[in-house]
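Predict the assembly for these two chains.
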Amino acid sequence: GNSVTQMEGPVTLSEEAFLTINCTYTATGYPSLFWYVQYPGEGLQLLLKATKADDKGSNKGFEATYRKETTSFHLEKGSVQVSDSAVYFCALERNTGGFKTIFGAGTRLFVKA
Amino acid sequence: DGGITQSPKYLFRKEGQNVTLSCEQNLNHDAMYWYRQDPGQGLRLIYYSQIVNDFQKGDIAEGYSVSREKKESFPLTVTSAQKNPTAFYLCAGGTYNQPQHFGDGTRLSIL
């Protein structure tokens, strides 16, 4: 079946450190892949997306590349800020009928000043 | 402004009581979704609807009910049959192969 696996958190970094949050997926067909961010007490917001193999999504300094050969979509940022502290969700949208999105469990990031 | 509006932001339920969470959208999304989020956990799909007057159960539908009488509205009722309703509930709207838009959530607690 379809599934998304993210690295467990929490991840704690100092300001200006490099961030990687791993995400791998299992899916039939050719899903679109997304990263969402959730700030405390709020809903999820789209951070970036990629719709086909080798696409790179980017936004606000975050990047992720759709790697079909390794079924991965790792999130990276070169220099994190305190304001990046949030929960990050990797997700896939099935292409084989239906509108369902499969979310990973989420990874909480804490950035210390 | 366009978006997904959930109300109320906080809700309290007494034992044996049904409560209804509101979700309204003005983004013209065909599909709408209800998710449950527990502390430190990911999102679990409760119900979803792809068109008006039609909806499907998600992974944890027991103890919940929904209706989709019009495109803009997708209310969720948490019934007394849901024995552990305390959670953060998120409503979303979407279109096929596009990212979902989320509301700001309703936090439900038991009195």
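Chain B has a mean pLDDT of 92. The first strand of chain B starts at residue 4 and ends at 7.
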